[in-house]
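Supplementary notes for students who missed Thursday's class. We covered one full example, reproduced here. Read the sequence, then the structure, then the short commentary at the end.
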Amino acid sequence: MADTWSRQFNYGDVKLLMISVVSEELAEDPCWHGNCFLFVMEGDTQMSDPKESTIGTEGLSRRTFLGVGSAGLATVALASLAADAQEKSDTQAADHDHSASNPGPENQPLLVENPNTNLPPPTDHGNMEPVWYSFDLTHKRVQEGGWTNQVTQRELAASKEIAGVRMRLTAGSFRELHWHTANEWAYVLNGSARLSVLNPDGTVFLGDVEKGDLWYFPAGFPHSIQGLGPDGTEFLLVFDQGNFSEDNTFLLSDWVAHTPPSVLSKNLGLPQSALKKLPDRNLYIFPAGLPASLAEDKAAVGGQRVESPYQYTFKMEAMAPTKQTKGGEARVVDSHNFLAAKHIAAALVNIKPGGMRELHWHPNASEWQYYISGNGRMTVFTSEGVRTMDFNANDVGFVPRVAGHYVENTGTTDLVFLEMFAADEYADFSLNNWIRHLPLEMVTAHLNLDADTIRKIPPENFAVIPG
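Structure (token representation):
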């Protein structure tokens, strides 16, 4: 008999398949030195149905194993990558022997942070898309004045509705005047910033934000962000387009650099001689002096006469919790309380050690998460499979629309993270709340629980429950 395990990784159009086969005969063969294999296949590669294959691992010798070739090995591995790739009974049996051992290379620091990926719980099964990525794996664009990096659909393929960008601006530095095709929602992680945004009617919004505040800019609205003292700012940007790229925005400097000087002269009403110092390349992020006070800036642009009727900032962290228990709290912000935010809804969740964001799902949009601090574990349940992952600060999580999930605090400090949705309204269904709103005999028929036990289930949608 042979013990086998396999793992599949998807990188765009390329699939990587790692297979380990441990058989008694191979282990006894003095010429056999390894049992881990890595195959690289194009994304459209079709592997044959394992039911049609006669290739097995019983009595597999070194010679016959090597003669199988990559196609045969892929077929062997596919048996564990089918719709029910992992069965609970198989995993429980493997826990009692060395089936899950990996004598090949491993990235130990990564495995320590992701124990439930390396050795998934027996309840995981199937082969669903990845639900985890980290900003710490991405390329950082660094310029004088700050930096930026991003997690988009290119990095997290399942996230087709939302992309995230992290940005740092030193004191005085600008993310230059620009606009883009997606709606922008932001959460300030550190420091403070000065914002500007122009409305189509010519009114302008100027405002300052600090740690825990939000802002929202509609698609196409020109705006700027400037770091304030003493040490600038760092923030998370969220866009309601999965394939959004922060490198492909519409920049003021880029536009003037690619417009004929004669046209600029005519449009601005200035002689060409006055335009010689215009930037000849895009600025993107660049240093500058600190601005005047907010009151002085507002007066300089026209005061109340041109002041925006719309408020584009919101104090999320300072608001009263929407839901609060001994296990933690959740603050929900959507178009009902932040009127400007028409297309992005969010919740800021704080879970105490041992607590849990209860089993639930969202009916109206997929969930894009950003983990701010602490350590957590999430299991995502879909009709295609179940996947458990571990999350740490600066990680991104993803939950497909209507997929059941929970988030559990597995650390010793508070777990803080953002839930974000490309929707105008936050909505969720609680498993507990659903069960307690059904006739007792209906629940008994489905779950085999007696009436007294069912009545002990929490009846409300608490969002966060204690450990």
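Commentary. Residues 29-33, 44-84 have pLDDT under 50 and may be disordered. The CA atoms of residues 257 and 280 lie 5 Å apart. If anything here is unclear, bring it to office hours.
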